[in-house]
Each structure stands twice: as structure tokens, then as C-alpha cells.
Description:
The chain has 121 residues and is of the alpha/beta class. The chain has a single domain, classed as 5'-nuclease (Rossmann fold), CATH 3.40.50. 52% of the residues lie in helices and 19% in strands. The chain has helices spanning 7-16, 20-26, 36-46, 51-63, 76-87, 96-105; strands spanning 2-5, 31-35, 68-70, 91-92, 109-113, 117-120. A six-stranded mixed sheet has the order 3-2-1-4-5-6, with helices on both faces. α1 crosses α4, α3 (36-46) runs antiparallel to α4 and α3 (36-46) packs antiparallel against α5. The chain is globular, with a radius of gyration of 13 Å.
Amino acid sequence: MKVIIDTNGLMVPAQWGVDIFNELEALGYDEFVTPSAVVEEIEKLKGKVKGRDRTALAIAREMLKKCEIIEAQGFADDVVIEVAKSLNAPVFTNDAGLRARLKKEGIRSIYLRAKHKLAIE
Length: 121
């Protein structure tokens, strides 16, 4: 099954030490999709952050190698929602604002709970 991964989700391994791909596979997701707008967001953030966040972004760029990149331009959160709708797939994110929007749209979200385990909402 497919799952959309946003910028925040790709940063989880560096921030919390969680292997997101193993955890997602344990939930039954084996196809990882990221819109190109998320890739662009990561590149833009790279020059704006320092320290731990910069390291997290570097690791996020490495995580992209395991994802299918779908061409989709625009504001990353809007694009993530549109891609999730078109693929009928949940979104992995810890971004509270995006999770609220997903819920409003009837799209399931997957998030990090208790700093070590993924949960589906």
C-alpha cells in the first residue's frame, strides 16, 4: 500500500531515531511517495536552518532515495493533500497543522506517537 511522506515525516529519523520505513512497513505500507514540492521545500529549508535541523534535513534528503518522487508543484502542504486524494493514500507527518487539514479532508494521517511508535489517525 502507498503512503505519502511529507517534509516533517522525512525528518523523524534524525529528530527521534525512528526507522520510519520499518515502522511504516509494520503498518502495511510498502510504497513510499513524496511529491516534488516536498523535495523543493527541503532544498529551500536547507539554507535557512542550522544545527540539528540542518542535520535532519540532510538525513531527509537521504531518505528521499527510498521514495518515489511524484511531480507536483505548489505549496508543499497543499500538494501533499492533493496527491493523497488522488492516490487515496494516507500521509505520514507530525505537522499538527497539516494533520488537522488532512482530517478535515477525510484523509488518514500517520504520525509519531510517544516519540518511538507510529500511529494512524
